[in-house]
Amino acid sequence: MEIADRSLSAWGIVVAAGSGTRFGGDKHMATLGGISLWRWADRLFTDVGLDGVVVVGDVPGGIQGGVRRQDSVAAGLAAIPDSAEIILVHDAARPLASAGLVRRLLEAVAADNVDGAVPAVPLRDTIKRVHGHRIEETIDRSELVAVQTPQAFRGKMLRTAHLQITSDVTDDAAMVEAIGGSVTVIDGEPSNIKVTFAADLAMAESLLTEESRR
Questions:
Q1: What are the structural domains, with CATH classification, of the chain?
Q2: In this structure, what is the dihedral angle of CA atoms 36, 71, 47, 23, given to the nearest 10 degrees?
């Protein structure tokens, strides 16, 4: 696809292999606006014009995932050609990410001398470190952000990170950082919420309705 006047091979991985324990069931098959959550993510990558999309999880057309999130991403990487120059990883639990966000991530990785780019939003709440029920410290949030997906990476760097990092991590950026890779941050989207609990799906429905009225 054409990104910032450069022709780069870009592929996407949609992670739809979580257990959905906190949601109370298979959340990736739950519907938003009549469409399964995982299909929102799949369509996002397809509509942007990526060269290919691999869906990991027990969904139609998906490949088998792993025990941990990073194991599922590794399964997706194994299904993507080695020639892929940029690889995006997206959680199916974030159905409202926009095409504009994906394009900005691709442009950030293509244009900057970085190994990856992630979207992030400022923290709204006061953050405290606790021990049990006792507050130990109030943390300065001025340099803290909440990171979202999709996340975009140079293909070779992401593959190297998954080969070298075996400890549990919460996102792919942490793996790239752990091997010395550089990851830049772009503005995320407040509406790009993660559906973790059933109430989150209701919030996503509300946001979707609000967007359709604009």
A1: 2-212 (3.90.550.10)
A2: 20
